[in-house]
Each structure stands twice: as C-alpha cells, then as structure tokens.
C-alpha cells in the first residue's frame, strides 16, 4: 500500500461511486482511478489491467470487464469502438470527458459582442460530428463567428456578413 494515489484522486473516485450508489469495492475504486488518471484517453480493458498490475494491484480481467459494464450502465463510463484498435476491442473512457460543453458562444467578429446559447442537443450533435470527423478528444469549446445586427446595419458590406465562406 505504498504507492497509494493522492488523496484528492481517491476522494474523487469515492465521490463518483457514491453518486452512483455503488459500494466502493477495491475493484471499482482501482478501475475508476485508472480511468481518472487517463481522463482524456479511451482505454481498452487490457490497458486498465496492465496499469493495475504496474500499481501492484491484482484484479482479474473478468472483474475489470464487469466493473466497466456496471459503470457504463450507470452512465459514468462510455464504451467506444476505436477505429485505430486493430483487434476491434472496445475502449472505455469517463463520460464526463466526452461531454460537450453545455453552451456555445456566438461572437461578433466585428465588435466582439457575444451571446451564449445553451442547447444540449446542439452541443451533443457537435460533439458527435467532432468524433466522427476524427477528433476523438472531444469538443473543448464551441464558438460561432457571426456578425451582430448592429454591425451588420452599420457596415452593410457583403464580405463582413459572410465570414468563413469557403471559396468554390
Ligand atoms: Zn457586432
């Protein structure tokens, strides 16, 4: 028990389990700790298994799969198919690190006026598209460049009204 993780990491794991109403068994705590340490990465169960062995913790691969499926059913963990995994194994990642920002920001490129839009379905859709497009790290922020009405009426130049239009 020498290589105990930091107290704050441990507290986080216990909080996560308590929220789900799960008893903090050592297998659950260990698996969650590895996932938290790799919060921005999706890991196959084997990597979690090896990480635990490296920490001197012996948990069977079967137990890891069982814990992961429990956590997945409760929405704490996402199961993903990884395009780069040659063996076609599922990868697991904390759901929180795969959630889109709750709101996106419309910003006028001319005056900098901003308007925050909170629309979960929009954010989720953007997140989905990001991942489909090969941005597996997920959306960090969503900023839409759009000329505000004030600027549009002050300078009615067509160029200013269509920022980001791709040339044909
Ligand atoms: Zn403006």
Automatic annotation (TrEMBL):
Tree of life domain: Bacteria
Gene3D superfamilies to which the protein is assigned, alphabetical: Winged helix-like DNA-binding domain superfamily/Winged helix DNA-binding domain
Transmembrane segments: 48-68
InterPro entries, A to Z: FUR (IPR002481), WH-like_DNA-bd_sf (IPR036388), WH_DNA-bd_sf (IPR036390)
UniProt KW keywords: Membrane, Transmembrane, Transmembrane helix
Protein name: Ferric uptake regulation protein
